[in-house]
Design brief:
The protein is an alpha/beta fold. It contains 13 helices and nine strands. Helix 1 packs across helix 7 and helix 9 packs parallel to helix 10. The radius of gyration is 19 Å and the shape is globular. About 13% of the residues have low confidence. It is found in: Mitochondrion. Its cofactor is [4Fe-4S] cluster. Keywords: 4Fe-4S, ATP-binding, Iron, Iron-sulfur, Metal-binding, Mitochondrion, Nucleotide-binding, Transit peptide.
C-alpha cells in the first residue's frame, strides 16, 4: 500500500485533472517519439541534438543537468536476470572507495526495486525545507529507490503516466548534490523509462551488463543500440557470470558460454570493462545486504570491481 509521502511526492500532478493530464502526456510523448525518430533518421550530429534551441525546435525535451551532479552513469541491460543491480551497487561502492569520490545510486526500476535489499536500507526519506527528499545513506553512498516509498510486499501496478511522474520525482525532487558520480540502475529493456531518462538528463555514459549466454547477448545488443540512437556514449561492457568457480575445488567452467561480451565490445568498438565470475560469496553477500566490495575488499571479485571503477573514472576524466 502506498504511503502518504509517496502519494504526495510522486503522483500529485497525476491527481490534478488526471484524464486531461493523461491525454496530454500520451500526446506529448507521441510527438516527442516521432520527432526523435525523425531526428535520428536524418542523422543529425550529436552536437546539434545537445543544443537546447535545436532540441526545442525538434519537439524534444530539453536536457537539464541534475543540480550538483557532475557525472551520470547509466547501467543497463536488455533483459532481467543478468545481475545488473548487483553490478550497479558494487560499481557505485568501488567508485566511492576511500571516500575519494562522492557517489549516489538511483534505482530506476519502479516495478522491481532491488537497491534497498542490496544496500541494506529501509525506511522513508526525510524531506528538507525545499521539499526535496533526502537520500538514504549507507556505505557512504546516497541511495534513492521506489522501494523506500512503498511497502516491501506491495506490487507497483501503475500505468505509464504515473511511472514517468515517479521517475521525474526521483531525478528532480531528490537532494542529490554534491556528487561526483550518480549511478543509475536502469530497469531491463528499452522502453519508456529508458527513453525518458536519456531524453531529460545529460548522461555521461552508459555501461551494458550481459552474461555470455546467446539469449542475453541478443538483448544486450538492443540496449547498446538504444543508447547509440539517443547519442549516449558507451563506456564499456561488463560480462557477469562469465565463468562458474567451484567453491570446493576451484575448477572453472564456462556454463553460459565464453567471450560473448567481448564479441559485443568488438562490434561497437568498445571494450570489456571487466568479467565477473559466478561465485557463491557474491550471491550470498548480495542477498544479505553486504556488497562484496565492502564486505570482502580483498576478494578477487572486489578487485575486479575496483578495476572497473578505475577505468570508468579515467574514461570520464578525458
Amino acid at each position: 500500500m502506498l504511503s502518504f509521502l509517496s502519494r504526495y511526492y510522486l503522483v500529485t500532478e497525476v491527481n490534478k485533472n488526471s484524464s486531461l493530464a493523461c491525454f496530454r502526456f500520451h500526446l506529448q510523448n507521441k510527438v516527442q517519439y516521432y520527432a526523435a525518430i525523425s531526428v535520428l533518421k536524418a542523422g543529425l550530429k550529436t552536437s546539434n541534438l545537445r543544443d537546447t534551441k535545436d532540441r526545442k525546435s525538434q519537439g524534444l525535451p530539453v536536457k537539464l543537468p541534475i543540480p550538483g551532479v557532475n557525472n551520470v552513469i547509466a547501467v543497463a541491460s536488455g533483459k532481467g536476470g543478468v545481475g545488473k543491480s548487483t553490478i550497479s551497487v558494487n560499481l557505485a561502492l568501488a567508485l566511492a572507495q576511500n571516500s575519494v569520490h562522492k557517489v549516489g545510486l538511483l534505482d530506476a526500476d519502479i516495478f522491481g526495486p532491488s537497491i534497498p535489499t542490496l544496500m541494506n536500507l529501509s525506511g522513508q526519506p526525510e524531506i528538507n525545507h525545499q521539499n526535496l527528499m533526502i537520500p538514504l545513506l549507507n556505505y557512504s553512498v546516497k541511495c534513492m529507490s521506489m522501494g523506500f516509498l512503498v511497502d516491501e510486499q506491495s506490487a507497483v501496478v501503475w500505468r505509464g503516466l504515473m511511472v514517468m511522474s515517479a521517475i521525474q520525482k526521483l531525478l528532480r525532487n531528490v537532494l542529490w548534490g554534491p556528487l561526483d558520480f550518480l549511478v543509475i540502475d536502469m530497469p531491463p529493456g528499452t522502453g519508456d523509462v529508458q527513453l525518458s531518462i536519456t531524453q531529460n538528463i545529460p548522461l555521461s555514459g552508459s555501461i551494458v551488463v550481459t552474461t555470455p549466454q546467446d539469449l542475453a547477448l541478443l538483448d544486450a545488443r538492443r540496449a547498446v543500440d538504444m543508447f547509440r540512437q539517443v547519442n549516449v556514449p558507451n563506456l564499456g561492457i561488463i560480462e557477469n557470470m562469465s565463468v562458474f568457480v567451484c567453491p570446493k575445488c576451484n575448477h572453472h567452467e564456462h556454463i553460459f558460454g565464453q567471450e560473448g561480451g567481448q564479441s559485443i565490445a568488438n562490434e561497437i568498438g568498445s571494450e570489456i570493462l571487466g568479467s565477473i565470475p559466478l561465485v557463491k560469496e557474491l550471491c550470498f553477500l548480495s542477498d544479505n545486504g553486504q556488497p562484496v566490495v565492502v564486505a570482502e575488499p580483498e576478494n578477487p571479485v572486489s578487485l575486479i570491481f575496483r578495476s572497473i571503477a578505475d577505468k570508468v573514472v579515467r574514461k570520464l576524466s578525458k
